[in-house]
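Example 9 (inverse folding). The structure is encoded as follows.
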């Protein structure tokens, strides 16, 4: 009996280790017929942390892998593939952005517990989806000479500019509620009634504007993210955008009015902004009252985790869509506070300034830029449709 007990005690650690490893590779999320393991979630979170991606790495990992599963299913249906040679070239190009060779880059990944295959999957989906969108929507994203002339006129600051009068809704969509939020958003997107849309804003929106039915004042179209400007300007009065996916949320806009104003403002070439995370809405609102400029936020960030405050000055296209939508409503030194994660936290966004340059004056470069923006709009709309129709379980 004692011998049996001793052998059992010695075997338990050996049995537990494979069981734990097996659990790590068990499905943590299923997207239609695609399984995402706990290992994949952990690997992506580590990769995002290494890239210093703003936001909660675990939540972002979950959202990215769900979206990538949807993208992969759609590309499989279309028969879109990337060869091993093409993938190697893309990984090398990715590493070169950090002035590293692929071997050096994967070495750094390994030091931080990230497998080379995790990077390859990240790059593969991104590149293949880009090519798929170009192939699928190339004819619909063509840019005419009239489009070029109009954009050049606006960038020069001497033509007419567009201002839009919108009503907004952002529905919180943390991972456990993402499918429900997308279903709600898809239903709202079908309406053309302003009263119905405003009622939905009061019921579902996480933004302070919900108290006003989501109604915004006139704003320059150029304030909005480049990828959304064409989508918004193409709306007729009463029309609603397709659901727009943002981190932990889904956004909708309804057009109430659009007008031309003289002396157009050129597109901003860079935006200086700050974003700070808080434990709850009350703390963020208190902080809002205590800051006059972005530099004041550094004092609030003392003693906080390193990623609590993000301060960046980048091109508009490099700003995450959720933050960009808040910045669109702000002037210099103005602050926006929104609930995040379904009410479990809050985010303060502050506009530090916009830099305006001469913009793109090369017609070929401008054509490519406008076409890229239109393709991104098609991509976002397709992804929203796929997500709304998907069965996601965790």
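The amino acid assigned to each position is listed next.
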């Amino acid at each position: 009996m004692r011998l049996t007990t001793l052998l059992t005690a010695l075997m338990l650690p050996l049995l537990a280790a494979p069981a734990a490893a097996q659990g790590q590779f068990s499905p943590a999320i299923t997207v239609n017929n695609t399984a995402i393991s706990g290992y994949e979630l952990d690997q992506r979170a580590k990769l995002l942390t290494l890239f210093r991606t703003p936001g909660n790495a675990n939540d972002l990992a979950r959202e990215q892998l769900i979206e990538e599963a949807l993208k992969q299913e759609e590309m499989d249906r279309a028969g879109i593939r990337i060869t091993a040679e093409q993938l190697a070239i893309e990984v090398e190009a990715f590493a070169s952005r950090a002035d590293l060779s692929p071997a050096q880059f994967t070495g750094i990944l390994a030091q931080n517990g990230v497998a080379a295959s995790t990077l390859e999957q990240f790059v593969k989906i991104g590149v293949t989806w880009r090519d798929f969108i170009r192939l699928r929507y190339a004819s619909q994203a063509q840019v005419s000479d009239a489009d070029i002339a109009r954009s050049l006129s606006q960038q020069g600051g001497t033509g007419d500019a567009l201002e839009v009068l919108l009503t907004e809704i952002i529905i919180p969509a943390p991972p456990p509620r993402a499918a429900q939020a997308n279903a709600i958003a898809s239903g709202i997107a079908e309406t053309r009634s302003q009263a119905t849309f405003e009622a939905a804003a009061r019921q579902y929106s996480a933004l302070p504007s919900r108290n006003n039915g989501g109604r915004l004042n006139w704003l320059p179209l150029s304030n909005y993210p480049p990828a959304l400007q064409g989508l918004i300007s193409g709306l007729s009065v009463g029309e609603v955008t397709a659901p727009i996916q943002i981190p932990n949320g889904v956004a909708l806009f309804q057009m109430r009015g659009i007008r031309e104003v003289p002396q157009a403002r050129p597109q901003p070439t860079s935006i200086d902004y700050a974003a700070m995370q808080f434990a709850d809405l009350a703390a963020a609102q208190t902080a809002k009252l205590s800051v006059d400029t972005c530099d004041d936020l550094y004092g609030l960030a003392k003693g906080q985790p390193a990623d609590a405050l993000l301060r960046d000055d980048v091109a508009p296209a490099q700003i995450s869509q959720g933050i960009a939508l808040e910045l669109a409503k702000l002037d210099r030194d103005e602050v926006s506070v929104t609930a995040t994660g379904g009410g479990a936290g809050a985010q303060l966004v502050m506009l530090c300034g916009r830099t305006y340059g001469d913009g793109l004056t090369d017609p070929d470069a401008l054509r490519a830029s406008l076409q890229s923006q239109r393709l991104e709009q098609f991509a976002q709309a397709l992804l929203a449709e796929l997500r709304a129709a998907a069965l996601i379980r965790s």
